[in-house]
Design goal:
The structure holds two protein chains of two kinds. By secondary structure, chain A is mainly α. Chain A has two domains: about 40 residues; about 250 residues, MetI-like (MetI-like fold, Orthogonal Bundle). Chain A is built from 13 helices and two strands, in the order αββαααααααααααα. Chain A has a two-stranded antiparallel sheet with strand order 1-2. Chain B is of the alpha+beta class. In chain B, strands 1, 2, 3, 6, 12, 13 and 14 form a seven-stranded mixed beta sheet that branches. In chain B, strands 10-7-11 form a three-stranded antiparallel beta sheet. Chain B has a two-stranded antiparallel sheet with strand order 4-5. In chain B, α3 links the parallel β1 and β2. In chain B, α3 packs antiparallel against α16, α12 packs across α13 and α19 runs antiparallel to α20. Chain B starts with a helix and ends with a helix. Classes of the chains: A mainly alpha, B alpha+beta. The interface between A and B is large, with 54 and 58 residues.
Chain lengths: ~300, ~450
């Protein structure tokens, strides 16, 4: 009897394994293999077509010496750590507004979320037009107030701020998650606080914020990771502004919007330095892994604090 | 239980099969949308079995349709080779395809790309093919052959070429009292300053100095002063007096009319380049350094600008007309499975009536010498002036180094610093030289 049970369990395991096998094969072929291959390539001189030649740590040494690697990393870190708090604040504010009861709440939710469903390339093209210093809406609006707007996408002092503005337009998804978190906060907390005479400011900072903090940290992690993969917007802007298609290796004015993933792309497909590009990708992986580990720890602590309160 | 296992095995087999179905298999010419094959497959002559070769070209839009129709005509004209042409504007796709051995037999590219591919060992060295067939390459314009040769190795056969010359707005010049365009850089600067118009807000309405397009400011506006970014051996030489002279004029103009104002004008001009709002088409640029295609574009947008074309001014007479020379060409992929047929197509096509159609259709200059005297080619607006410039043999070639694009990216970075005033031309070029020496130019 016992033997039969064991056999059944084993059979169940085999069945489960067989059902999972297509995914396992796909994951091995399309994730594990490329991952390991890129690790090997990062130690080789490789142009994607001819056979790779082992060069040891040369690519990693090259990265350390390449000023554009550091510049692109600096630009990417700026986007990660400046855009993330701005976007989170905006998302929380929008979620707070649409969580209130007022006429047109549905319309407001739709309007706030709508930019998120517009394809990135299309929205970036719209922003390029809006940022145009001569015909653009932004400088025209500034002109009404007597302000001379800059060449947003041509002046290195303003390019990254222009990207931040573009990014803030696209916080609908974060807003939606924050809204769900806000709706999860028990109403009894608010009622008690009101009975105790707490004002709106106190209610927000003592009740709302601690109760949605774990969601905010999670969103912050996602935002930072997304910022490290920031590519499409800058690629579209640079291609549109360079006046040439596909052949540009520009990083924008004075390389001010040269993001790390874009520089990996240039190394891989324009300079045909797949080895160096792989090494850069692994460096990015390590940076993101460290940041994620830190933020996960922070999340745990935040959740524990929220739970104890 | 056995039934369950059997079902699981069946499901797994089906899923794996469907998963892998998308990974393998080669597409036939008939599979591909937009290829010449679709229309031609039915028209193949009965009994003949042409060798099918694939050809990728990096041209999109209406010009892609034009390329397809030329290849269509080529296919109909003979029954030995069938060219399956496909527009591939994404250069990364080219690399990925070649790396998986699924690349095309022939690639239409620019000469810097061809040289970079040759240096990387991605394409065939054509010397052996030329020698084997005793193919006479002197039928091509010498500069276009040089543009496609590195260390004596021929990377590609040239099909079209282009250089840059100066377009000028005749009406603006006449309003200023000039009857002739400038011949020296000083004259040009003088006229440019006089022609620049600011609106009520101080924004530039008419740009006098040819600071747009930026690529021309980096090249022709430097070459006209006798400057160069590299020496004959291909070593970076940014810190030259002539380069400094060019940048000094450039910065002087920017400072006189406002660094931000000039930058704003250029940004708008970039966004609207080659559209109906193009600054030159709209009469808002006095001088424009551009290629032979500009006239065709002006015609297509019904621009009524009264323009003239002349050689780019020079600091000295020897520097007049100095402009970049680039060539479009056909390369034989190293992963080609039909190398002989691909080579035959390349040499037949680039020395035939078909390449003439490409020249006229794309408004690029010919590389095949007999077309220099062809009536139909010379009838294309501006071609006569541009071909005369080519005959003057004053063109500047990019050096045959594989990491040219890296060097150009660094030059552009420092020009940005100089243009926006964060570095003086001297500081910028000095630092640029240090940076350029840190990358290994091969």
């Amino acid at each position: 009897m016992k033997r039969t049970k064991m056999t059944r369990r084993a059979r169940n395991n085999i069945n489960g394994f067989l059902f999972a096998l297509p995914w396992i094969i796909g994951f091995t072929c399309f994730s594990i293999y490329p991952l390991l291959a890129s690790l090997y390539y990062s130690f080789s001189s490789f142009n994607a077509v001819t056979d790779p030649k082992w060069v040891g740590l040369a690519n990693y040494q090259n990265i350390l010496k390449d000023m554009l690697v550091w510049k692109s990393l600096k630009n990417t870190l700026f986007m990660a750590f400046v855009s993330t708090p701005i976007n989170l604040c905006l998302a929380v504010c929008m979620a707070y507004i649409v969580n209130k009861s007022f006429r047109g709440k549905g319309a407001a939710r739709t309007i706030f979320f709508m930019p998120s469903i517009i394809p990135v390339v299309a929205s970036t093209m719209i922003w390029i037009w809006m940022f145009d210093p001569t015909y653009g809406m932004i400088n025209t609006a500034l002109h009404w107030f007597g302000i001379q707007g800059p060449a947003w996408l041509n002046n290195p002092q303003f390019t990254k701020w222009a990207l931040l503005l573009m990014g803030s337009w696209n916080t609908g998804t974060t807003m939606l998650i924050c809204l769900a978190a806000l709706q999860d906060v028990p109403m009894s907390y608010y009622e008690s606080a009101q009975l105790d005479g707490a004002n709106a400011f106190q209610i927000f900072f003592r009740i709302t914020l601690p109760n949605i903090a774990h969601i905010l940290v999670y969103q912050a992690i996602l935002n930072v990771i997304n910022a490290f993969q920031y590519f499409t917007q800058v690629y579209v802007i640079i291609t549109a502004n360079s006046g040439v298609k596909n052949t540009t290796t520009s990083g924008g004015p004075a390389n001010s919007i040269l993001m790390y993933p874009l520089y990996i792309f240039y190394n891989a497909f324009s300079y045909m330095k797949m080895g160096k590009a792989s090494a850069m990708a692994w460096l990015l992986f390590i940076i993101i892994a460290i940041l994620t580990a830190i933020m996960v720890k922070v999340t745990r602590k935040t959740s524990e604090v929220a739970g104890s309160e | 239980m056995k039934r369950k296992s059997f079902m699981a095995a069946i499901c797994m087999t089906g899923m794996v099969a469907s998963l892998l179905a998308g990974c393998g298999g080669t597409s036939t010419p008939e599979d591909k949308e937009g290829t010449a094959a679709t229309t031609q497959a039915e028209e193949k002559k009965e009994g003949s079995e042409p060798v099918t070769i694939t050809m990728w070209y990096g041209i999109g839009g209406d010009e892609s349709d034009m390329m397809l129709s030329i290849i269509d005509e080529y296919n109909k004209s003979q029954d030995e080779i069938f060219v399956d042409a496909l527009s591939v504007t994404d250069s990364s796709k080219m690399i990925v395809a070649m790396s998986s051995g699924e690349g095309p037999d022939v690639i239409r590219s620019s000469n810097p790309t061809a040289l970079a591919y040759l240096k990387q060992g991605l394409i065939e060295d054509l010397n052996a093919y030329v020698e084997k067939d005793g193919f006479d390459t002197s039928v091509y314009y010498q500069k276009s052959l040089e543009a496609n040769t590195a260390d004596g190795h021929l990377a590609a056969l040239p099909s079209t070429a282009y250089t840059i010359q100066m377009y000028y707005n005749k009406d603006i010049l006449e309003q200023l009292g000039y009857t002739e365009p400038p011949t020296t850089m000083e004259e040009m600067y003088q006229m440019a300053v006089e022609a620049t118009i600011l609106d009520d807000s101080g924004n530039i309405d008419v740009l006098g100095y040819p600071l747009f397009p930026l690529a021309s400011a980096r090249q022709e506006l430097v070459y006209g002063f006798g400057g160069r970014w590299w020496d004959e051996a291909g070593n970076p030489t940014p810190l030259r007096q002539e380069n400094l002279d060019s940048l000094t004029y450039n910065v002087k103009y920017r400072e006189q009319f406002g660094i931000d104002k000039v930058a704003s004008f250029i940004t708008t001009a970039n966004t609207n380049r080659y559209t109906e709002k193009d600054m030159f088409f709209a009469g808002k640029q006095l001088f424009r350094f551009d290629g032979p295609w500009l006239t065709t574009m002006m015609e297509s947008y019904d621009s009524d600008v009264n323009y003239g074309i002349t050689m780019i001014p020079g600091a000295t007479e020897a520097d007049r007309g100095c402009a970049r020379f680039e060539s479009n060409c056909y390369v034989l992929s190293g992963t080609s499975k039909n190398k002989e047929a691909a080579w035959k197509f390349m040499k037949d096509y680039t020395t035939s009536e078909f390449v003439k159609k490409e020249v006229i259709g794309l408004a690029n200059l010919p590389a095949y010498m007999p077309l220099f005297e062809d009536e139909e080619v010379l009838a294309v607006p501006a071609f006569k002036e541009f071909i005369d410039t080519l005959k003057a043999e004053n063109a500047v070639q990019f050096p045959a180094i594989s990491n040219l694009s890296e060097y150009v990216a660094i030059i552009d970075e420092y020009l940005d610093y100089i243009y926006n005033g964060s570095m003086t031309p001297e500081e910028g070029l000095k630092e640029l030289e240090q940076r350029a020496n840190s990358i290994t130019l091969e």
